[in-house]
Specification:
Helix content: 25-40%
CATH class of the largest domain: Mainly Beta
Distance between the termini: 125 Å
CATH superfamily of the largest domain: Ribosomal Protein L25, Chain P
Number of domains: 3
Order of helices and strands: EHEEHEEEEHEEEEEEH
Length: about 240
């Protein structure tokens, strides 16, 4: 990678606020048993590196006003309100410097995976794996081939081939990276026999209640008819 030119920060560089207004981002380089160095990075150039997809796992070659530095991005600080990048920390490294990085896991041949073709779902337990290695031996990504993966398979870190000298930081167990699980099927619940019987009983009670009301209405009409002749006789 070509050397990216940055500026050494001094008292004449101005405040953090003034630098940010000029499109510059202040930061620091530390490590390798040497004094920290304050630098200023052009925001556009830094944003380009950040969106490369391998920002935290790629060595960056800097030219600090003629002085060459190899660094690894470690931390970015954002404004709490505007979410604008306001500061960065870079770790100074050499080829044999031991570093800890998080590397993405890529799964190959999803389109022909037997388990996925049967409706299975790839459940990612870890999207990235934390690794320990030399700065000159950082893998861009880890890969696992799903060409023969079936539903029920668990993909562990031991199933993923790591480059020589690269080890996971978790060493006390063979941890799971992903699983191939069965599809989730929603089953519509059917009413139980008890519910059906209860529903029939309610319908019967309603019908019986209706019949009783009709009988009562008929009885009232008959009494009215019997009462009319009595009134005529009195007259």
């Amino acid at each position: 990678m070509e050397n990216i030119k940055v500026i050494a920060r001094s008292k004449d560089s101005g405040s953090t606020k003034s630098l940010l207004k000029k499109g510059m981002v202040p930061g620091i380089i530390y490590g390798k048993n040497s004094e920290p160095s304050q630098i200023v990075f052009e925001d556009k150039a830094l944003q380009k590196l950040m969106h490369s997809g391998v920002f935290y796992s790629k060595i960056i070659n800097l030219d600090v006003e003629g002085k060459k530095e190899k660094v690894l991005p470690k931390q970015l600080q954002y404004h709490p309100v505007t979410d604008k990048l306001i500061h960065f920390d870079f770790l100074r490294v050499q080829d044999d410097t031991k570093v800890t990085v998080e590397i993405e896991v890529e799964f190959l041949n999803r389109d022909i995976c037997p388990g996925l073709k049967q409706g299975g779902v790839l459940n990612l337990v870890r999207r990235v794996v934390e690794l320990s290695c030399n700065a000159n031996n950082i893998p861009e990504k880890l890969q696992y081939d799903l060409v023969s993966a079936e539903i029920g398979d668990a993909i562990k870190i031991s199933n993923i081939e790591l480059p020589d000298g690269v080890k996971p930081t978790i060493t006390d167990r063979d941890f799971v990276v992903a699983t191939l699980v069965p599809p989730t099927i929603e089953v519509e619940e059917e009413p139980t026999p008890e519910e059906e019987v209860e529903g029939e009983a309610i319908e019967g009670e309603t019908k019986e209640g209706t019949d009783s009301k009709e009988d009562q209405d008929s009885g009232d009409s008959s009494e009215d008819k019997k009462a009319e002749p009595a009134e005529d006789k009195l007259k």
